[in-house]
Design brief:
Elements lengths: L2 H18 L16 H17 L5 H40 L8 H4 L3 H8 L7 H40 L1 H26 L14 E2 L7 H14 L5 E2 L15 E5 L9 H16 L1 H4 L1 E6 L2 E4 L6 E3 L13 E6 L1
Parallel strand pairs: 1-2
Antiparallel strand pairs: 2-3, 3-7, 4-5, 4-7, 5-6
Helix pairs in contact: 1-3, 2-3, 2-6, 3-6, 5-6
Length: 331
């Protein structure tokens, strides 16, 4: 092998090794976890523990953890694409060096800053269009990775803050639970004395068709159902108890959905306003009724996290996002 070819082969190996190595820019870059899975597992355990203490699903918290996991998956996907693109560039650069050509594609090996790559590469007049496309692809992946990392970290930080806020309110929530449990016990005692039975008979003459009502729901939920129906009914239907254990209050008999349309269709503007009237009335009377949280139009109001309407993650459909009904859960 000639001296030139041996030198070319050595350079090719060096170029490939540099391209495959983690790239770094001349500027300091804040350290960010590319996969916050371990912390999310810990937050998951905290969420389960808080849900047990708070006597019901914490939608804001589970939403936050799921969103953070999606962002972490996106980081991994982008990193995989970036590794594949870097490998293609390594092959190209190695081939160019073997042939004795110096190619600006090597610039990608020494910079992880997507904003400077094209500026530097554009000064090389001999860069072919195909090479420009490869550089643009790499720049795009660098930027996508940066955005995905920022999103993942922001989601984890937001979830961590929510956990801290919920932890700080545990004593207050415990007082609410104790208050409503005492009310339930006193009510059962009164009914037992007046009827000779501790059983509960729901109020008849509902304005709306009720699915999963009656003895399948708690007395408190029945009170809320009856009052909402009498004030705002009729609804297309009211769905309460269902056996499917989805982590919420429906299988516990502590939740009802007040439907504003049928067949998963978007309600009319008039019914949308009607839904807000129901949701805001339930919020304003939450203390008297024992309302734990309300969900409507992809927003949640939860007394346990301090109240205030907060946006929820997209669940993928009109019904799943609560656009066609008002959900009310009670303690």
């Amino acid at each position: 092998m000639s001296t030139r070819r041996r030198l070319g082969a050595m350079i090719a190996v060096m170029v490939a090794s540099v391209l495959f190595a983690p790239a770094s820019s001349g500027r300091a870059v804040p350290s960010q976890p590319t996969d916050p899975g371990e912390e999310l597992d810990r937050l998951d355990r905290q969420a389960d523990d808080l849900a047990r203490q708070y006597r019901g699903e914490l939608h804001e918290l589970t939403d936050g953890i799921q969103a953070a996991r999606r962002a972490a998956r996106e980081v991994r996907e982008v990193e995989g694409k970036q590794a594949a693109a870097r490998a293609r560039l390594a092959e190209l650069a190695a081939a160019r060096y073997k042939s004795g050509r110096i190619d600006p594609v090597i610039m990608l090996a020494t910079s992880d800053d997507p904003r400077v790559v094209l500026d530097q590469a554009a000064t090389a007049e001999h860069l072919a269009r195909n090479d420009q496309d490869r550089l643009r692809e790499m720049q795009s992946l660098m930027e996508a990775r940066r955005r995905a990392q920022q999103e993942a970290q922001a989601r984890v930080t937001e979830t961590r803050r929510l956990v801290a806020r919920l932890e700080a309110k545990k004593d207050k929530v415990a007082e609410l639970i104790e208050k409503y449990e005492a009310e339930e016990a006193a009510r059962e005692e009164r009914e037992a004395q007046s009827s000779g039975s501790s059983g509960y008979t729901p109020t008849p003459h509902a304005k709306s068709p009720v699915i999963g009502g009656g003895s399948s729901i708690t007395p408190r939920m029945q009170d809320v159902l009856t009052e909402v129906d009498q004030r705002f009914g009729p609804f297309s239907s009211i769905g309460c108890y269902r056996a499917t254990n989805d982590g919420g209050e429906h299988p516990l008999g502590r939740a009802c959905d007040f439907m504003l349309s049928t067949g998963g269709s978007m309600p009319s503007s008039e019914n949308v306003d009607h839904g807000w009237a129901v949701a805001n009335w339930a919020r304003d009377n939450a203390d008297r009724l024992g309302v734990m949280y309300i969900i409507y139009r992809q927003q949640i109001w939860d007394v346990r996290s301090g109240g205030g309407w907060r946006a929820m993650e997209d669940r993928g459909s009109i019904t799943a996002n609560h656009y066609d009904h008002v959900h009310i859960s009670v303690f």
